[in-house]
Amino acid sequence: MKIGLIAMSGVRAQSEELNRVGLTLPGFVERRQVIASMPSLSLLTLAALTPPYLDAEYLEIKDLREQQVFPDDYDLVAITSFSAQILDAYRVADHYLAKGIPVVLGGLHVTALPEEAKAHASSVIIGEGEPLWPSVIRDAERGQLQPFYNQQPGQWFDLADAPIPSYELLKLDKYNRLTVQTSRGCPHRCEFCASSILLTPKYHVKPVERVLEEIRHIKTLWKHPFIEFADDNSFVMREHYKELLRELIPERIRWFTETDISVAEDEELLELMRESGCQQILIGLESPHASGLDGVEQRRNWKLKRFPTYEAAIERIQSHGITVNGCFILGLDGHTPEIFDEVYKFVERTGLYEVQITVQTAFPGTPLYARLKAEARIIEDGRWDKCTLFDVNFVPTHMTPEELQRGLVDLGRRLYTDEFRADRRRQFKEQLRNTWFTPAAFA
User: Fold this and answer.
1) How far is 258 from 271, CA to CA, in rounded Å?
2) How many CA atoms are closer than 13 Å to the CA of 169, on its beta-carbon side?
3) 430 falls in which pLDDT band (50, 70, 90)?
4) Cβ distance 298 to 190 under 8 Å?
5) How would residue 443 be classed by pLDDT, with cut points 50, 70 and 90?
6) DSSP structure string for 137-171
7) Which strands, in side-by-side order, build the sheet including 323-330?
8) E strands in 392-440
9) Residue 442: is it exposed, middle or buried by C-beta count within 10 angstroms (0-12/13-18/19+)?
10) How confident is the model at residue 78 (pLDDT cuts 50, 70, 90)?
11) 187 by DSSP, 3-state: which?
12) Averaged pLDDT, 232-252
């Protein structure tokens, strides 16, 4: 049996203006290229869980307008996709179903809307794929695929049992980095988040030795790799990660990850991050003023409480030689049309090395989607192709959708000029020479 593992890997804004102007801005281009040049870790993991007597092939589809011919010699096809490309994924699935080839769909979007996905699939995986994939394979070999494979509520896959993903299936010259997952889940519950918290009920980590095995395997394929930790929030379990970072130092790799602002509180952690090859961390700052943060994190209003530490934390992290990519979500309920100038001034004031701006996006399955739908604030429900983080598909509280879309483009033009970017890099170098911070800000 030959299995086609298909990843929908490209994201294109629906706004033609953003495609003509916004997505050609340096910041957008860099981040988009990073996303587009990373393989699907979930499918590579399923490949590793596939019995070796079966033939698994990995395929990426970035744009259906450019790829109209697909391999048809599969006995089973498994497809995963972001919400932004799920409609294209359904078209690909329909193509294979029309050929009589069984199709399995999975991922975050499919888990949130399994009945929608089932209209385009033989089977749907609801939840984490690892514990369910062996049953899918067994049933496919018998010709007895079930319509749904559902992870039991409250259960989660133990990352200690995770296999080394089948990186050898990749054409490595297509990628500028490879992903390694060191944890799954997040202790925070941000209203807008459409990440693995939808799949797993608790935060858990992969054992240090398992992570090292994956990195060492990658190094047999790519001598000096750049690694992105595919985590929602690295470093939550501080002592575990300190142990991992100590082990990473002799591996001599460069790496990037996403985390939260609290890493600035731990001097030992920052030093280990630098020594182990950390090049940059991405932090969801979300808003340059407190009113935009109220209620974003739903359990303890965690981000609002941390807001007073933002500027000192950025300075402290960057003074350790670790660049910060600060992410802002435009159009939060507390945002007025002044938000665009406020973001620019915050970036200017703090010297953020990189900055990412997006618009608030209601992904299916998130608390934000449920709330905006109940408030009749979603403009075109079901337009998942607008879930790009750049297209406005909701009615903001204090501005029009058009004002928000225009503000995104205009702010991007200001943030990503060569002059402003060079100035921020100069500030970063100065911070390395002036490594002071205010301890009181973290009390």
Assistant:
1) 17
2) 24
3) confident
4) yes
5) very low
6) HHHHHHT---SEEEPPTT----GGGPPPP-GGGS-
7) 178-180, 226-229, 254-259, 278-286, 323-330, 354-359
8) none
9) middle
10) very high
11) coil
12) 97
